Amino acid sequence: MKILMTGSSGLVGSALIPVLREAGHEVTKLVRSAPKSADEVQWDPQIGIRELTRLEGMDAVIHLAGENIAAGRWNADQKARIRESRVRGTQTLCHALTQLALPPKVLLSASALGFYGDRGEEVLSEESAAGRGFLSEVCVAWEAATQPAEKSGLRVVLLRIGIVLSPTGGPLAKMALPFKLGLGGVIGSGQQYMSWIALDDLIGAITHALTTEAVRGPLNCVAPHPVTNREFTKTLGGALRRPTIFPVPAFVLRLMLGEMADELLLSGARLEPKRLLETQFQFRYPRLDEALGAVLGKR
Ligand SMILES: NC(=O)c1ccc[n+]([C@@H]2O[C@H](COP(=O)([O-])OP(=O)(O)OC[C@H]3O[C@@H](n4cnc5c(N)ncnc54)[C@H](OP(=O)(O)O)[C@@H]3O)[C@@H](O)[C@H]2O)c1
Question: 162: closest CA among 272, 261, 266, 85?
């Protein structure tokens, strides 16, 4: 396949590209900076695509771009960047795709578990309604921005990605640091659910969505066994062989991180990967201890 990818320099994109190329696919990157190689095309997510004709004849688009949600404190400017990089960026991309004489057949567009908001113990499938809060509103608008592509006949898959466990960065690297220093512990009440996925399985789920015609619409990209923060803390401490005796009270996190603390760390959502399982996707790491063991290189 000829595949176009946005956000290719990020945690997910940079791990996905070698896997796609190894499988024989041709990947073109849509990048924000000046192109450095023949496989790059420049775009400004807020404005448009520099050489639109380079997008003719692609088979698929994987759209991962967006301002990192943990990049900085959520003041009004940062929240606008988080939202607009996704909503406007998706509008720009989808508008371009609908202008093509030879458009792609499929668009895989990132979204996030944030779609569901803070939901306690409720088990959430792709049919569950959106939640409340900033991230939920962003995800709803981000997903809705793909509608022009869907209306013009593309198979659109909305990748509702959970907490990605990767050895090289992302949420786990941030979480693991205090644990490595022996300062790990439960966050807030510890009751909030964490729906996680090993990076290898996310890459598998994305390639599964790319080639499985039956997959369309929302797709929960999470492992089948989400855990509470208390279980996560215990398992991570065990994997790192470190104590987990330093709980982090909610008020401390709120003082340190503001609104981000509530939406990213103190709230929880218990997702099930219903569509992935229905379409026979096989997880390599369905359980957290195996995933952390593999990701942290202890097994
Ligand atoms: N990692 C997770 O745990 C997780 C969980 C749920 C959802 N997701 C979503 O999945 C997608 C990929 O995740 P990731 O972890 O690979 O993200 P990432 O490491 O933060 O990378 C995202 C990429 O988006 C582009 N980008 C950064 N700022 C941007 C801006 N202001 N406007 C437009 N593009 C911008 C960059 O690529 P270029 O420099 O190449 O343009 C960047 O490498 C993201 O949309 C993320 O929200 C991730």
Answer: 272
Q: Kindly write down the DSSP assignment for every residue of 186-238, as one continuous string.
A: -BTTS-SEE-EEEHHHHHHHHHHHHH-TT--EEEEES-S--EEHHHHHHHHHH
Residue bearing the CA closest to ligand 1, atom 19 = 10
Spans of all domains in the chain? 2-295
Radius of gyration of the chain (CA): 19
Residue 123 CA to residue 153 CA, distance in Å, equals 32
Q: Which residue has the higher pLDDT, 255 or 208?
A: 208
Nearest CA to ligand 1 atom 47: 66
Pairing of strands 193-194, 40-44: unpaired
Q: Is 7 in the pocket of ligand 1 (CB under 6 A)?
A: yes
Cα of 245 from ligand 1 centre, angstroms: 33
Ligand 1 close to Cβ of residue 85 (< 6 A): yes
pLDDT at residue 173 in the model: 87
**pLDDT for 299 beyond 50:** no
- In CATH, what is the architecture of 2-295? 3-Layer(aba) Sandwich (3.40)
Residue type present at position 90: T
Q: How far is the CA of 161 from the centre of ligand 1 (A)?
A: 12
Burial 163-192 (b: 16+ CB within 10 A, else e): bbbbeeebbbeebbeebeeeebbbbbebeb
Interval 53-73 mean pLDDT: 96
